[in-house]
Design goal:
Elements lengths: L2 H13 L2 H8 L3 H15 L4 E2 L6 E2 L1 H28 L4 E7 L8 H11 L3 E7 L2 H10 L4 E4 L8 E16 L12 H5 L2 E4 L8 H10 L6 E5 L3 H9 L5 E4 L10 E5 L6 E9 L5 H18 L1
Parallel strand pairs: 3-4, 3-5, 7-8
Antiparallel strand pairs: 1-2, 5-11, 6-9, 6-10, 6-11
Length: about 300
Amino acid sequence: MELRHLRYFNAVASTLSFSRAAEMLHIAQPPLSRQIRQLEEMVGAVLIDRESRPIALTMAGRFFYEQTVQLLARLDQIEDGTRRIAAGANQWFNVGFVPSAMYGMLPELIKRFRLDRPDIEIGFSELVTMEQVEALKSGRIDVGFGRLPISDPDIACVTLIEEPLMAVFPLGHALLKKSSVSLAQLAGERFILYPARPRPSYADQVLDIFAQRGLHPNIVKEANEMQTAIGLVAAGVGVALVPASVKGLHRTDVVYRPLSGKGICSPVIMNVRASDRSPLLDELRSLAGEIVLQLSR
């Protein structure tokens, strides 16, 4: 499948007319029709109902159209950003992050960094900590924000904050009568662990926290996404442990409780290439330090 197939299909799907699409694309109608047939053969589905008058998208065609609209729009953004960078108008800086980091200090850090450096084109990649290692080494990202310490001589790690963990319960749970709960109490509950993969990840951090205290949670479900895990808690499937900043979601179908034990935390760690001496990274580190100080006051 080539990009032209997607652009040709997009033109036909948006106009519901082979003739108008051909005019838009400045090609003849017969080769356009052949390209759409070829695309349908490649995806293994009929995308356009040619018997309808006017032509119509099949159910598969509607799904394919929705996806290609998003994909082509993103490609246009990439092309535009690339041209600006090549012309010297922007620098490119790509940030990798674990999803839970987006509920704490990271959004404020990125917002202030963008305000300070409007000349920079910032990209974002959702990656677990271990994925960030390869992304940093290959140059796909310039900085990563994760929760696991990385033991690799090529990666430098700076712990920005130690974020307390909180338990999440469904409404009406018996332990909500308490103002705080212990890990031993959570170990006796049906427990939801995330992410299920890839590993190692925050999930292993949680398991280690229990293991250090001689506890083994009763895991009844593993979810790939934090939001899914919290949704399963809301459904009464079990309980979970999340970073305290996640409480900012303000969901009305779950309740958070602090842990009674001290020092039960998950760090937010800034990961960079050990050899990277970029002034941009120095600025980002300095700004992160300022925000951490403000949060600690």
